[in-house]
Specification:
The structure is a homodimer of 132-residue chains. Chain A has 132 residues and is α+β, with helices and mostly antiparallel strands. Helix content of chain A is 19%, strand content 31%. Chain A has a single domain, classed as Phosphoribosyl-AMP cyclohydrolase (Ubiquitin-like (UB roll)). Chain A has 3 helices and 7 strands, in the order H-E-E-H-E-E-E-E-E-H. A 4-stranded mixed sheet of chain A has the order 2-1-6-5, with helices on one face. At the A-B interface, strand 1, strand 2, strand 5, strand 7 and helix 3 of A face strand 1, strand 2, strand 5, strand 7 and helix 3 of B. Strand 5 of chain A pairs antiparallel with strand 7 of chain B.
């Protein structure tokens, strides 16, 4: 198992700026739909385990321990991409979500709508015409 | 200006769980490409200003003040969607990005690649066949 990456995990961990609790926020985005699924926190150990096993581990702030996403529900997240930002203090995980991401049964944790988006989806017919 | 929403801003602010600094992490996602652009923090005032003006305000932790995204660069973010998560402690903003999101000149702040994703884009021809 595990994933092949372009740096040593220890070097990635050295670069990332963890907060005073030793945590960094991590966004999980769906590799197929690009939907944002959740935001959780990672510590050094959870990043190591994520690369070792190829499935996402977070750090649970409420339970104060390492948390393998989907450990009890089976709704694991297979790691497909790993990015960090310009300030090196947040992470973007691209994942293949098994089942649903949210413990409520929703696919994404961001189901509370205040202002709902009409995504500007590319119209398949228009795109086809552009190919002719 | 401003945006029409399905709740009073004061009620949204009451629902959201701010941390001990009065902040909540907010993810900005592009309305057209669905690319994740950045992660920053909002306080109560920045949420109010965002709905009032229809463009995104954050709270700058380094400058310790309200921060209108793109105020100096012109690279503003027009608000197109606003969601919060199951735990009510993180926000997802859907935005129309003017120019680029990152101060480095990159479109997204998440340009540091450790493991690069090959997005599973829907094949236009396959989708067309499925419609026949």
């Amino acid at each position: 198992m595990g994933v092949k990456i372009n740096k040593k995990v220890e070097d990635i961990i050295k670069e990332i700026k963890f907060d005073d609790r030793g945590l960094v926020p991590a966004i999980a985005q769906d590799v197929k739909t690009k939907e944002v699924l959740m935001l959780a926190y990672m510590n050094r150990e959870s990043i190591e385990k994520t690369f070792q096993e190829g499935v996402v581990y977070y750090y649970s702030r409420s339970r104060e321990k390492l948390w393998k996403k989907g450990e009890t529900s089976g709704n694991i997240q297979k790691l497909k991409g790993f990015y960090y930002d310009c300030d090196k203090d947040s992470i973007l995980l691209i994942v293949e979500q098994v089942g649903v991401a949210c413990h409520t049964g929703n696919y994404s944790c961001f189901f509370n709508k205040v202002l709902e988006t009409k995504y500007k989806n590319i119209n398949i017919i228009e795109e086809l015409y552009s190919l002719l």
